[in-house]
Amino acid sequence: MAFIKLYRKKLEENYTFLNNIFESRNIEWGVVTKLLCGNKIYLKEIIALGVREMHDSRISNLKKIKALDPTIQTVYIKPPAKRSIENIVQYADVSFNTEIDTIKMLSKEAQKQNKIHKIIIMIEMGDLREGVMGEELVEFYGSILSLPNIEIRGIGTNLNCLSGIMPTQDKLIQLSLYKQLIEAKFNIEIPWVSGGTSVAIPLILKNARPMAVNHFRIGEALFFGKDLFTGETIKGMHNDVFKLYSEIIEITEKPDTPTGELGESGVGNTYVMEDDADLGVTSLRAILDIGLLDMQPQYIEAEDPDITIVDASSDMLVIDISNSKKKYKIGDLVSFKIQYMGALYLLNSDYIEKTIG
């Protein structure tokens, strides 16, 4: 059985690195846990770090967090669906919102549950996902200001998640100006200006973020140490908190080119025979006990640099080990580095064991 392993010490070191950055700049932050897909083993590891604020886009995951530690502030990081209002109020202390009618429903449900529900008003700033349009923000804010059992915790924006728009200094200055505009208009103070996700880390490291932007939601940087501007690993962080291990179940010297009448494969692909294909060429191929049901090959990379991923079917992955210096045998484990989306597939699979290292 293939398994994914979380390396505790590397996670702790990444968390300490980030926490020092934020504390030294008086920035509040929460850990985005949606990658973990509600896995209790890994959620406990996050709580053990001392995290007091956790963000997720699945209510079922927030429910698990509250069951593990009801004192943690939970944040639902997408606009609530109408059918989910009751559970949002029950399991999320804070939610991201963009619709007046939805906030009114949250207000009514919070009254029923005798709770104060906090909201972040998300503002559209170019990435074209969720957000109130800037020119409508003041009217929007005023229309919900006095709703019972609703506390407007702040404003925020989401960049880079849909269209790839980066959180530049100019974008965050614009977000700061929205804060000033609302505070002046309504004579109030906005506690949080939530400037985005891991993609904003490089700006923070350069001290290029406006001081008014005082809150961030961090997931990918914690688990992968990635600078999303450059694609490189942030100096001082680990990019291999997670690793995938899969067992070899067959090793055979086989032709590089399939033989017979070609049709569509079981996963919908059609092999294209090159005109100059050398039908006599062979390679030493290994089959691993993992497939497309659990992962996508483009998001994993063998730690052995001499291994090449050939292709995958629903339950098996074929690799070329011809050039490897290691003499692999049946039952050996092959380890892989994982990208964020690769980990998301693996952690969402019931067929992949989750372990701690």
UniProtKB/TrEMBL annotation:
Domain Alanine racemase N-terminal, residue spans: 10-225
Domain of life from the UniProt record: Bacteria
Keyword check for Isomerase: yes
Molecular function GO labels: alanine racemase activity; pyridoxal phosphate binding
SUPFAM superfamilies linked to this entry: PLP-binding barrel
Pfam families: Ala_racemase_N
Required co-factors: pyridoxal 5'-phosphate
UniProt entry keywords in alphabetical sequence: Isomerase, Pyridoxal phosphate
A Gene Ontology term for the protein's cellular component: cytosol
InterPro entries in the record: Ala_racemase, Ala_racemase_N, PLP-binding_barrel
PANTHER family, sorted: ALANINE RACEMASE (PTHR30511), LYSINE RACEMASE (PTHR30511:SF3)
Protein name: Predicted amino acid racemase
Source species of the chain: Flavobacterium gillisiae
